[in-house]
Write a structure and sequence with these properties.
This protein is of the alpha+beta class and 137 residues long. It contains one helix and nine strands. β1 and β2 form a beta hairpin. It is globular.
């Protein structure tokens, strides 16, 4: 009976320690750097293609925002925040994995929304990491 009590006590301590460690690391945002952040007409094989530009015609239909992150300290989630004329249109959460490089992208259908656009990249804490501007004419 004593062995079972010792075992259960030890198990409870281990579980409490694991729970504490998980909570502590979840509160800290992973660190990473952005090697490339571009708006383009398309992405293929995880590379921006068909022209990187600051101005796009409305008839293109949709645009892509390509991101290459480097030196990612832990698995994390980032947000692509698409802003038109100062008003947030959509926030797209995307997971990136720990490692030396991760490439990803988000896209946005333009509809009839001409004017100035910004795509902001935010970390898990909501901190602005980088942004890119473009216009639709």
């Amino acid at each position: 009976m004593k062995k079972i009590c010792y075992f259960l006590t030890a198990l409870a301590l281990v579980m409490a320690t694991v729970s504490f460690v998980s909570t502590a690391s979840a509160d800290e945002a992973a660190t990473f750097s952005i090697a490339r952040l571009v708006v383009c007409k398309n992405v293929a094989d995880m590379e921006p293609i068909l022209g990187r530009d600051e101005k796009f015609p409305l008839d293109i239909g949709k645009v892509y925002c390509f991101l290459e992150a480097r030196e990612i300290s832990a698995d994390t989630e980032i947000n692509f925040v698409w802003i038109h004329e100062g008003i947030t249109q959509v926030t797209v959460p995307i997971k990136i994995k720990k490692g030396w490089r991760w490439r990803t992208y988000s896209n946005k259908k333009l509809g009839t929304m001409t004017g100035n656009w910004t795509v902001e990249i935010h970390d898990t804490n909501g901190t602005l990491v980088d942004s890119v501007n473009f216009a639709v004419e």
